[in-house]
Model the fold of this input.
Amino acid sequence: MKNTLRSLALLVACLAPALAQRDFLTPDEVSQVREAQQPDVRLTLYTTFAQLRMELLRNYFATEKPGRSALIHDTLEDYTKIIEAIDIVADDALRRNLAIDKGIDAVEKAERAMIADLERFDSMDAADSSRYRYALDDALEATRDSLALAEEDLRDRKADVAKRDKEEKTKLEEMMTPDDVKARREQEKKEGKDQPKRKLPSLRRPEDEVVAPTPAPKKK
Done:
């Protein structure tokens, strides 16, 4: 449930980071994500961004300087949002039958190393640790959850995503009136007929060329 709420909160930030209240990507990184239309490429990009945040954290933790706790806290928060964005991109690609094998391999390898770094930070007995403790706990939890997903067989993960979507849709419809549910389903049916090639949410500008997606292989 916590992961679902986290994913919903990060969905808009993932697809349009420039609109987030507090940007967790730099302007240059936002531009790179806009150009990365293939989910495999996007996953690799986000993984690189997470590794860059980890490099910053290693530098901050190397020396206890006045004021470093705020830098550690903010960098951990940005890092966690990037990890969550990775999971959102992967799940969305699986919904659309897009290939993410290469991206997931990069994610899995990087997250193993980043968990080791985070656990080392967690073991440090720093005087200012109370100021970034919760952010560090969140980063560790998010990365462990993300790694567990990356290690999962893609077919099983896709089935889990479909099951979760169905459950969420059922819960939503339980809060609606019968007439609203009927209207919603009729609208979905109409959109399915009228828009068989609906465009994906994208950071690409309208005038940019859209690259055709590559079908996902059956096996990981």
